[in-house]
């Protein structure tokens, strides 16, 4: 559930627009950043704040592939499956991801570490087939073998994080606000 401070923050953002509905995407991303995905409660809150129905918000979520209604792994790999990437073998990369993780696309691995999602154009046609990892890292010219390597690297990074003290509590409290505070303090969140 959104806190009073979070609702005030969202209302302040929405106030910049001539119509409340214009702030819907920002609010949806805010909820997703807080919970990892857009929960039913979060959707209801955004509906009240923006005066849009849940159905209208679901239409927005369905259109924007970076928004999600289901929980995902700690690492999210979005593999472009638009025409440029498809003609360069994205379907083979996605099949390799399914084989390696033993999960269907969009499902989280049993340990919660990875979710692989097909994605509409990432704007990386010159590097096709391409993927966006955790919304901040790009991999291009993917092959099934490069997908295996990428998944191995992510698993190794997970192992390293698990060795650090207080890893569990760091995950539990990591929010955009804590990342900002940590960067101001010169620390890693």
Automatic annotation (TrEMBL):
InterPro entries: NuoE-like (IPR002023), NuoE_dom (IPR042128), NuoE_N (IPR041921), Thioredoxin-like_sf (IPR036249). The lineage of its organism: Bacteria, Pseudomonadati, Pseudomonadota, Gammaproteobacteria, Vibrionales. It comes from Photobacterium phosphoreum. Binds 1 [2Fe-2S] cluster. Gene3D superfamilies: Glutaredoxin, NADH-quinone oxidoreductase subunit E. This is NADH-quinone oxidoreductase subunit E. PANTHER family: NADH DEHYDROGENASE [UBIQUINONE] FLAVOPROTEIN 2, MITOCHONDRIAL, NADH DEHYDROGENASE UBIQUINONE FLAVOPROTEIN 2, MITOCHONDRIAL. Its cofactor is [2Fe-2S] cluster. Belongs to the complex I 24 kDa subunit family. [2Fe-2S] cluster binds at residues 80, 85, 121, 125. Keywords: 2Fe-2S, Iron, Iron-sulfur, Metal-binding, Oxidoreductase. It holds the Pfam family 2Fe-2S_thioredx. NCBIfam families: PRK07539.1-2. SUPFAM superfamilies: Thioredoxin-like. One of its GO terms (molecular function) is 2 iron, 2 sulfur cluster binding. The keyword Metal-binding applies.
């Amino acid at each position: 559930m959104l806190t009073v401070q979070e609702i005030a923050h969202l209302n302040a953002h929405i106030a910049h627009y001539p119509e409340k509905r214009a702030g819907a995407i920002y609010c949806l991303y805010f909820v997703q950043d807080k919970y990892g995905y857009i929960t039913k409660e979060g959707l209801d809150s955004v509906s009240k704040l923006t005066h849009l129905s849940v159905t209208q918000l679901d239409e927005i979520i369905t259109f924007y592939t970076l928004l999600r209604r289901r929980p995902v792994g700690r690492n999210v790999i979005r593999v472009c499956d638009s025409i440029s990437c498809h003609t360069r073998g994205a379907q083979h990369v996605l099949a390799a991801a399914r084989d390696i993780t033993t999960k269907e696309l969009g499902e989280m691995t049993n340990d919660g570490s990875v979710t692989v999602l097909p994605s509409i154009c990432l704007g990386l046609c010159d590097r096709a087939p391409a993927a966006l990892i955790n919304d901040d890292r790009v991999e291009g010219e993917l092959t099934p073998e490069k997908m295996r390597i990428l998944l191995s690297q992510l698993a190794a990074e997970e192992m390293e994080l698990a060795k650090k003290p207080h890893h569990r509590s760091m995950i539990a409290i990591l929010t955009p606000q804590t990342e900002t505070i940590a960067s101001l303090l010169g620390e890693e969140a």
